[in-house]
Amino acid sequence: MRVHIGDGVRLYFDVEGAQLETDGPDMAERPTIVLLHGGPGADHTLFKPELSAAAGFAQVIYLDQRGSGRSVRCGPHQWTWERWADDAIDFCDALEIERPVLLGSSSGGWVALLAAIRHPDRFAGLVLDSVMPGDTYERLDMFERLGGPEARDVALRYWAGDNGEETTDAWERICLPLYSHRPGGDAATHDRLRRVRWNDDVLDHFRTVLAREFDPWRGLERLECRTMILAGEQDPVATASAARRFAHRLSHADVRLHVVAEAGHGVFRESPKRAMDLLRDFVVSGHVPRLH
């Protein structure tokens, strides 16, 4: 399905789970979760099938962000963190979604965090999965620990903007498999990425421009909604130590940090049962059903 949010922009979305359920003689509203994928330049299929289980306790809405997946491609001048964050608000307005839980994974978590900072009264909760990047040396050290000196060297060249075929091939062959610490995760990651409708131009724009433009630590004092942070102890990019620093920086009371010992990047994919249990508790405990 697609929805028009203005300026000729149409965003693709998919839905699992009903908004209303029976409650005796009434209908009660279930919580709504809006999902923001990572990449950037990937699409919502990164969440499937693991997040489908959330439809058992919430309405789940998957969104392909501007420039990605099945949404309008547009151009680099519209691929900004602020535009993507405001798109999340415009999308909710277009579908009349009130106070959803906003869940972002990887770079989608940067978008979710910025949306919650820019619009602090719009969300019932914020879930950030594998979001906060460690500093450069911290990430390089993790790649070396997981894949040896060669992985460190390839990551350094790739992040420096080397677009050569040799570096790109080495990144996909040596470094990308290290994102997963799950048994069989390499093959599963390969299959998952084949399903994605990538916009490689967005990913390249992220590496060369956007990655250094966004400061995830700025504006945290404006973050007001309940927040759950998920991190994998074996994540080479959104490191567990960065997640701990981030949780410590948040000043509001209801902040939950969960570091999963054997998980890599993307806790919902790496440890789906554990992540789903945590998500269910977070979403349901904060929901006050309204009768319709």
From TrEMBL:
It holds the Pfam family Abhydrolase_1. This is Pyrimidine utilization protein D. InterPro entries: AB_hydrolase (IPR050471), AB_hydrolase_1 (IPR000073), AB_hydrolase_fold (IPR029058), Peptidase_S33 (IPR002410). The lineage of its organism: Bacteria, Bacillati, Actinomycetota, Actinomycetes, Kitasatosporales. Residues 31-270 form the AB hydrolase-1 domain. It comes from Streptomyces olivaceiscleroticus. Transmembrane segments: none annotated. The keyword Lyase does not apply. It comes from the Bacteria. Belongs to the peptidase S33 family. Keywords: Hydrolase. Signal peptide: none annotated.
